[in-house]
Amino acid sequence: MVSKAIRYAVALAAAAILLSSCAHKYANPIAKQTDQPDKVLFDKAIDDLAHNRFLESRMLLTTLINTYPDSEFLAKAKLALADGWYQEGDAHAMAQAEAEYKDFILFYPAMEEAAEAQTKVCDIHYGEMEKSDRDPQEARRAEEECRVVLTSYPNSKAAPEVEQKLRNIQEDLADTEYNVGLFYQKKGDWFAAANRHQTLVDNYPLYSQADDALWRAAADYQHLGDRWEKNEVQNLTKLVRDYPLSTHVDDAKARLEDLKAPVPAPDQVAYDRMKFELANRKAPGLISQFFGEFSGRADVALAAHSGAPQMQPVHPSVPANVPARAAGMLGTSGDITASVATDASALDTKPDARSAAGAGAGAGTAEGTATGVTAGADAGSAQTPVTAQSASAVQKDAIQKTSEKASKAQAKRAAKVSKPKEPKKSSKPAQPKRAPAANPDALPKPDLPADSNAPPKQ
After folding, report:
1. What does pTM read for this prediction?
2. Which tens digit of pLDDT belongs to each residue from 355-381?
3. Cα–chain-centroid distance for residue 364?
4. Is residue 57 a contact partner of residue 48, using CB atoms and an 8 Å limit?
């Protein structure tokens, strides 16, 4: 009885399946072609991509993009094409992948996948980043592309991960500046060393050795003399305030007391951040240190894990020995204006027009402006500055000399014009005039000798 019931149930199930298949097959004549051709191409390309058949996948995706420009799978096909190049992994493929990702962002900037594409571009350069003692080009490109992710897509899922990658990148770039500054410091070039260390602490405050860089920058300025004491005090003050757990804090406080400068209180936020970093910092092991010497990858084990990374492009500091005017800190000495000359002969008849214009522009400014400072002199140097009165006298003297030269030149030109021209004297002696030639027909013809070859006269 039970077996009969089972056979009956199996028969009913088979009949139901047969009827459903017949209904699906014949209810709509085109039901067997429910998959559209663009979807078929896309599915086959994704399957090839999953099995690392990159060439076949690219051919199918390219066919889909060129044949069905209005397909709903067009955006996904372009992104899959870039993913195929990225998954292939070699240098040529990575360059092609970056181009395809940029192309996708250009055509579909509002899609959610645009943030994913920009993150992949950041990862491409992040993977090529080298150690700090080598070419920093890829690190700078990675820094730029990761900033684009955080500024253009701050709410994307990859934003926290990209932010940490940006800290790692800036750790590598800051380490480059630190090593260069250390090289100049050992060499005794204090201006170059101070410039490198100052650039580091101004642009990469999250660097793992930023406190040591501040201490070294203060030492650089100390070697340069009392003239740079202000710069030394600024770096020591920042060290005590922003890096309270540094090993150089006690020495920095003692140095500030020797310089009779106020000792600041430590910043609580900086204290908590530095405490968190020291507690969560993992030093590389012996094996990692050994093999790290032979590796070309950047070592970012000491990179910060908290704090906002630098989001502005790096602005190198101006070396301390560059004069203020050459560095562009003082600006121009006056307003510069330009106008169209109405008289085309003004420079010929009035050669001192430009000098007079400069004098007029300088006369309108108050005494004691930047014209009284010698060009190229440092603002903080101990040289005796030129007073505004002496500068005005020098300017008037130069204008007077220029006008005198112009007057002499104009007088010479006037003398040349007023002097009459004398006829040119020929170096050849004058020859007597010849008498007019007589009529050749009136003159008697001379008897010519007879030609022996001429025929005899008849």
Report:
1. 0.63
2. 554 444 444 444 444 344 333 444 444
3. 40
4. yes
